Amino acid sequence: MTRRQLREMQLSPGDNEGPVAILWCRLCATRPQWPCRHPTRGFLLRVDLAKPKRTPTLAQERALDRAMAARQTCGQCRRRFDICLSKKLGCCLECFDGTPVHPSSLMTLPAPAVHRLAA
C-alpha cells in the first residue's frame, strides 16, 4: 500500500525500511530516469510491517495549536482565521486593502467555562 493508504487506515510505515515496489507512470516506465520528475509515482510499502499511528500527547497538541494560531492570526486586528494567512502580506485582506472578511472564515472561540458550585 502507499503512504496515503496506510494513513487512511490509521497506520504508519513502521518497520518498513524502504519501498517493496515502485509504481511508475506510463511515461517513466518507457524511459526510466531516476529520480522520476513526473508526479505519478508511488512507493508501495508492506502492510504487515506497518504500526498503528501514535497519538500525540496533550503538550504536543498544545504546541501544534500555538504554532497554527501564529499562522492563522492577523498581525494587525489580532483575529484568528480558519486558514493560514499570507506571510507576504503579514495580515488579513481586510487590514491589507479593506476587502471585507466573511464571518464564517473567522474562528469562533469557545464560550468561557461557567462554574456552578453549590457553595
Task: Explain how this protein is built.
This is Zn(2)-C6 fungal-type domain-containing protein. It comes from Streptomyces clavifer. The protein is an alpha+beta fold. It has 2 domains: 3-52, no CATH class; 58-105, no CATH class. The protein has 4 helices and 4 strands; from the N terminus they run H-E-E-H-E-E-H-H. The chain has helices at 3-8, 26-30, 58-72, 93-97; strands at 11-12, 21-23, 42-44, 51-52. The chain has a two-stranded antiparallel ribbon. It has a two-stranded antiparallel sheet with strand order 2-3. The protein is flat. The protein starts with a helix and ends in a 22-residue tail after the last helix. The model has no long low-confidence stretch (mean pLDDT 83).
Keywords:
119 residues, alpha+beta, 2 domains, two-stranded antiparallel ribbon, 4 helices, 4 strands, 8% strand, flat, QRL_CxxC_CxxC, Zn(2)-C6 fungal-type domain-containing protein
Number of strands: 4
Strand content is: 5-15%
Q: What is the 3D shape?
A: flat
- Span of the ends, CA to CA: 59 Å
- Tell me roughly what share of residues is in helical segments: 25-40%
- DSSP helical segment count: 4
The gyration radius over C-alpha positions equals 23 Å
What class would the helix/strand composition place it in? alpha+beta
**Count of separate structural domains:** 2
Major pleated sheet: 2 strands, antiparallel
Side-by-side strand order of the widest sheet: 1-4
Model regions low in confidence, pLDDT < 50 over at least 5 residues: none
